[in-house]
Amino acid sequence: LKSIDEANQDALKRILDGDPYLVDVVPAAPAIRDLADRMILHAGPPIGWERMCGPLRGAVQGIAVLEGWAADLDDAAAKAAAGDYTFAPNHHFGAVGPMTGMTTRSQPLLVVENKTFGNRAYCALNEGLGKVMRFGGNDAEVLDRLRWIARVLGPALGRALRAGGAIALKPLIARGLTMGDEMHQRNVACSSLLLRQLAPALARTAQGGDELAACLDFIGRNDQFFLNVAMAMGKALTDPTRDIAGSTVVTAMCRNGTDFGIRVAGTGDRWFTAPVEMPVGLYFPGFSAKDANPDMGDSAIVETVGLGGFAMAAAPAVVGYMGAGRASQAAAFTREMSEIVVGHNPAWTIPAMDFAGVPTGIDIRLVVETGLAPTINTGIAHREPGVGQVGAGVVRAPLKCFEQALVAFAETMDIA
Amino acid sequence: MEQPDQSRSRDLLAATPRVVNVGLEMFAADLAARGTPVVHVEWNPPAGGDSRLAGLLDKLRG
To answer: What span, in angstroms and rounded, lies between the C-alpha atoms of A118 and A153?
Structure first.
């Protein structure tokens, strides 16, 4: 019988051995088997309409109209309340989604394949900043942009990837860390590096110069375009660790705006949930903390693989953007997270920390023992439906999730 | 029985204290504000002092 430490080393090795590639962009159906008509996948652990926060309800209303499942937003809300739609977490379908995390049949999805283990993970394309569906936006401008993504951008990216070949993400992330990205709230370098690799194949396969220009312009103006790629990559890296008996390593962290949920390797696909925390950060002009919705999104999957708040030392500029202190304090976040992990990733290193690897493999025992909850870098949505992003900041995972998981894990080991 | 070294005790009382503070940071901050050299060590009881969780952690080592 393996010890817990040995099982945790196995989990860490599976994460570190993963070799993720961006291989395609395809419509959610039929890529995700069992994604049925009138089924809406959302971020975070399971939740029903009655407990959903404002922006999540706003996104559900918008996506229902977009899919043609409701005449308008009011009709969508009535149908959702009446139980006409089936809700399920992205994580139950091999997918992730930022903030509200809407995934439905017609959405084009990024496909990341972990070549070491052969598994695939999915995430929708990034819509840009401001009034967008992932932050609860749902007006005509938001829906028109999503229609263009489904009709033009998604198919164009899919053609380019199939023609130009899959893009290796491990070295791309390594490069991004040396260029000031932490892959959650700063993706400037990785978005640029990705576009640099995609552009020739995009040009060769585009249906005309106007389409090519529109795609290049959309990606080029969106500093966060790579976030969704990083998220699908995080899911593809952690899924092979989802069922390792005797391991206390966290395999997923996510939030739906009401509940925060974690999964642990030794307890399989069971969720451990607690109320989400409120991010502390900076707000766009005209907004303040009283407008903010609590923590939301599947994007904490990047922290689960050692990026985002765990790699803060690589991205001093993001500390200022999020109001998390002085740039010189960036390394303190990474050092603190080093206290709650099984090891470090030698493939993803941080120059400002003498090329130390990013802290990887969160151990629930260390979180409970030290009281140091994982630090997550995040966008902040307006608490009302339909408004969009109002800021960015830092939030902690609730300790209660880890305490519950520890008790449940002990039961699997016949310890009480 | 060995007697305590009284000269060292006198030195301790006469010299400026050098302090290592463990746990509550406010003690260190107060000393620092008065100009006393102090090194603060962050420390919390395991599991925030929750004896049930601390007991489980003891059994889940290794």
So the answer is: 26
